[in-house]
# Entry
Amino acid sequence: MKRRVAAFLALVALAAHGQGLTECRVPGIRNSVQCGVVQRALDPARPDGPKIDVHYVVVPAMARRKLADPVFLLAGGPGQSAIDVGPQAFALFSRLNNRRDIVFVDQRGTGQSAPLECKDAKRETLAEQSDPDQQLHQLMECKAALTRLPYIQSERNLGFFTTTLAMQDLDAVRAQLGAERINLVGISYGTRAALEYLRQFPTHVRRSVLDSVAPPDMVLPASFSTDSQAALDATLRACEQQPACAQAYPRLRSDWGTLLAGLPKTVTAAHPLTGKTEHFTLTRDMVLGAVRGALYSPAAAAALPAAITEAAAGRIEPLVGVGALLSSRKGIQLAMGMHFSVVCAEDAPRLPDAADAPGADFRGDYATLYRRACAQWPRGAVPAEFYQVSPRSTATLLLSGGADPATPPRHAARMAAALGPAAQLVVVPNAGHSVLGVGCARDLLYRFIDAADDQAAGALDAGCIKAIPRPGVFIPMGMEASK
# Structure
């Protein structure tokens, strides 16, 4: 995907920096699109210093008489490329695209905008994934390689990839397109970015949709443990309450405890993405990471009872495989240099004061790599106001999945209260991470943004999405007959 995207974005180089749009195509989007570039100072305090090119793609409205307020997608991560996820996300915007331009901006540090990419985690061996010292070593090697990039040159410059600066880039794109106001659709980390854009440029926002809310005050590594534990406990509880699951996996909780108690241990398994058989040490972090990855999607989480039962019996491939489902999706890969530049600046300094209690199983181990890495990663400046979300008159729709292990409703509820009466929170009890792809959510997105005024947008009826059931548990063929 990235090679193909790079090929058409190379066409943009034929145009002067920030001086118009170039016709191009994006694989996966049938419509003809336009590519643009805006040149930005890496450090706004040094306008004559190093420059970076911020790339974006515009999918023009289909109607001749289009509306003046385009829709901007803010991707997740931090570290996702909006252009890379554009082909998958475009289905959400196809109806809006009748009369509005859809804009995908590669945030600085991602995609084609001065990317800070490290080794592709999908190509790591299972042994590398199981060794925290090796992971840190690879990250420090990546940092050294990034400092040799022509648009970085100095380790200090890795600190200029914060959300605050990225949203100033986004506003430069808005200005270049000549849009007085825009609509924001943020997903996961993209909701944090949207809130920061709303803070800095409130008069340029018409409507905001925040899906799977990751607010600036959540302290990412600490919240991972708390929220993942809640999602896992709910999954175990749901199995106990579902007759078919309880009958198929009557010892699920004890099997889970047995699995954790037997770690670390040496195992043999095929890599879920390469197929190569490997001998490695299965660690607690690997098991918890696999479980957490599966919990992002209720459909994948439905396979966890079977995977846990198999792993407790010594057959770990189902668990390793289901945990890889998230990272194997196209467009989900993160520019890890940008990821750590954001987290080390905005979250890590607040870890010592984080109020989230560690989960009983997940504990505080997940934050260890972040603590070690951020101790050696350049830290960008973050204004105190970044963490303060104030009431806004802009109509905002917040979507949250009740089964989300990363950004559950507690974070969205906090932000809805802070934003004030113009904010509407919709909780979908049986949805996981990212609600917009579920059921009638696409129609809700259209109706919210297309509403004639804020009063009509705020009166949105979301009943069609709240009743989505939890997927039934996965039971391998033949198991029911053997009971």
